[in-house]
């Protein structure tokens, strides 16, 4: 009864090799024949392989065992990328009842979720370190680890064969649907992933969800389509393609069946529920109030505070995913330095739209966001008002202080300081008002890359940036910074700075100047004009 693994205690294994492999959709098709037993363990990404022409879906946490002479194919058109361990070994039988190659047949040819996955990964990592073992003792240890790896795999395969727990079977295929809904998906493929026949799989799925697998997939696609349709820059063809439909007219009919109105009517009558994260202020400038915002944005951002009552706060570090889920957002604006884990979790709740933070200025961000939420007119109107205000302010300040004096903007930390470029708090001083940067600051700006802040510099180097005018912000989030700066102000080093001697040193409050956003630069402009024109001395 090899199909139940009853004689697996007769199994004898011999090491062949272990390697790491990867494959990305768009690469030339991969096709190979397994010469010996080959166990693929997927560590990253999703994709589909073909075993004798039959599709097998793969995702992190799954293993698939290919028997000798099996044909393994990965089509270059597959949408996905996988990284995996490929463990090759020979199997023999110690007894007469079973042929060694058949002892593992009960576990071969289908994807298996390994739970818990970490113990198998630990063993494979150790095996990888010993793959080129030379000494007899190292090879002995490698053989023991090989036995352990196959034991962990076979145990999961046996449990899957014996229990077929309905909820677990359905949950793993639902996860696969959510990650691969835009690709072609067949019922046989889902049943194979579950490790049961089509009829049993359909019955189990209805037991757990109340719907058939294909109906559930259709609903999943339509829910995703609803969110995509609320991205104003998307057209019908793009949305249809993204949720697995090649024909936009067929997609439109299916959408109306599920939702009750056509996609175009839905787009025109439904305003998206948005969470802006870093771009909360951008949305407010466009007249679009987010449904929620990180707590620090609502309570620490001076220019957003007056709108706080209209939004629901949620904890950000770490992100309270349950609170975000309760807001039922359609769109969430992300950014390039978002943690991959956070992005993956948020993607399960809404369509995450990436907006470049570091590589474009606040105007570019506002323009990109306005295109997504359909607020291009509001963006143009805000820009016209702001730029007109900026022109008046620049003329006034240039007339007052002239264009010859130099300026440096510094962020003071504990025992160090940073130079500020023409972005963030430097935007208003250098770009809007056109103040003349100190020569060393100008060198940083002209270095070729977007210059926001320099690396920390010791207080000893302050004299190198002895500009005619200094704009200072103390960073209270850096522990000890306020105390260190107060001590610095008592020193001769500080008193000898030209801006301090002439009374052209200005300390700006952190709560008004740490933010870089449309509302912030508009408010900061008023602040800057006030203290520069009055020559308030701090």
UniProtKB/TrEMBL annotation:
Keywords on record:
DNA-binding, Signal, Transcription, Transcription regulation, Transport
Q: Kindly list the residue ranges recorded as spanning the membrane.
A: none
Start and end of every Fe/B12 periplasmic-binding domain?
Answer: 271-536
Q: Where in the cell is it found?
A: Cell envelope
Assigned protein family: Belongs to the bacterial solute-binding protein 8 family.
Domain of life the protein comes from = Bacteria
Pfam families tied to this protein? AraC_binding, HTH_18, Peripla_BP_2
Subcellular location, principal: other
Q: Which GO terms describe its biological process?
A: iron coordination entity transport
Gene3D superfamilies of this UniProt entry?
Homeodomain-like, Nitrogenase molybdenum iron protein domain
Ranges of residues in domain HTH araC/xylS-type: 171-269
Q: Which InterPro entries match?
A: ABC_transptr_periplasmic_BD (IPR002491), AraC-bd (IPR003313), Bact_iron-sidero_bind (IPR051313), Homeodomain-like_sf (IPR009057), HTH_AraC (IPR018060), HTH_AraC-typ_CS (IPR018062)
This protein's name: ABC-type Fe3+-hydroxamate transport system, substrate-binding protein
| A GO CC term assigned to this protein in UniProt | outer membrane-bounded periplasmic space
One Gene Ontology molecular-function label: DNA-binding transcription factor activity
């Amino acid at each position: 009864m090899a199909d139940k693994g009853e004689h697996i205690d007769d199994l004898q294994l011999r090491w062949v090799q272990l390697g790491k492999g990867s494959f990305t959709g768009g690469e030339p098709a991969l096709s190979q024949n397994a010469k010996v037993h080959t166990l693929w363990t997927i560590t990253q990404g999703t994709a589909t392989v073909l075993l004798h022409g039959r599709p097998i879906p793969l995702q992190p946490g799954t293993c698939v065992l290919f028997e000798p002479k099996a044909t393994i194919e990965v089509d270059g058109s597959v949408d996905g990328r996988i990284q995996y361990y490929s463990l090759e070994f020979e199997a023999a039988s110690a007894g007469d009842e079973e042929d060694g190659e058949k002892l593992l047949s009960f576990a071969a040819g289908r994807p298996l979720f390994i739970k818990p996955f970490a113990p198998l990964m630990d063993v494979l990592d150790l095996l990888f370190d010993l793959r080129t073992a030379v000494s007899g003792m190292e090879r002995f240890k490698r053989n023991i680890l090989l036995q352990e790896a196959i034991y962990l795999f076979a145990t999961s395969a046996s449990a899957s064969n014996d229990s077929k727990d309905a909820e677990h079977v359905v949950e793993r295929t639902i996860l696969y649907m959510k990650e691969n809904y835009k690709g072609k998906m067949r019922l046989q493929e889902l049943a194979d992933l579950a490790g049961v026949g089509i009829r049993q799989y359909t019955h189990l799925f209805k037991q757990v969800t109340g719907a058939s697998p294909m109906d559930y997939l259709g609903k999943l696609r339509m829910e995703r389509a609803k969110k995509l349709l609320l991205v104003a820059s998307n057209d019908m063809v793009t949305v249809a393609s993204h949720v697995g439909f090649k024909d936009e007219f067929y997609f439109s009919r299916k959408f109306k069946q599920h939702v009750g109105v056509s996609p175009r009517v839905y787009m025109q009558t439904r305003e998206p529920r948005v969470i802006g994260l870093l771009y909360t202020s951008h949305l407010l400038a466009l007249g679009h109030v987010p449904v929620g915002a990180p707590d620090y944005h609502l309570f620490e951002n001076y220019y957003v505070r007056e709108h706080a009552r209209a939004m629901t706060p949620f904890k950000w570090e770490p992100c309270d995913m349950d609170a975000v889920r309760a807001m039922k957002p359609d769109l969430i604006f992300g950014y390039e330095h978002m943690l991959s884990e956070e992005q993956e979790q948020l993607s399960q709740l809404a369509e995450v739209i990436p907006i470049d933070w570091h590589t474009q200025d606040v105007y570019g961000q506002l323009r990109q966001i306005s295109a997504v939420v359909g607020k291009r007119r509001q963006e143009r109107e805000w820009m016209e008002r702001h730029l007109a205000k900026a022109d008046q302010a620049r003329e006034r300040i240039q007339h007052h202080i002239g264009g010859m004096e130099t300026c440096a903007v510094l962020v003071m930390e504990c025992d160090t300081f940073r130079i500020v470029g023409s972005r963030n708090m430097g935007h208003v001083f250098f770009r809007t008002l056109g103040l003349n940067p100190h020569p060393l600051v100008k060198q940083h700006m002209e270095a070729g890359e977007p210059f926001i802040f320099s690396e920390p510099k010791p207080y000893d180097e302050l004299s190198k940036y002895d500009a005619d005018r200094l704009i200072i912000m103390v960073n209270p989030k850096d522990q000890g910074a306020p105390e260190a700066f107060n001590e610095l102000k008592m020193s001769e080093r500080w008193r000898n700075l030209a801006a301090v001697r002439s009374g052209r040193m200005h300390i700006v409050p952190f709560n008004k100047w740490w933010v870089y956003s449309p509302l912030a630069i508009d408010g900061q402009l008023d602040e800057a004009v006030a203290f520069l024109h009055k020559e308030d001395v701090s």
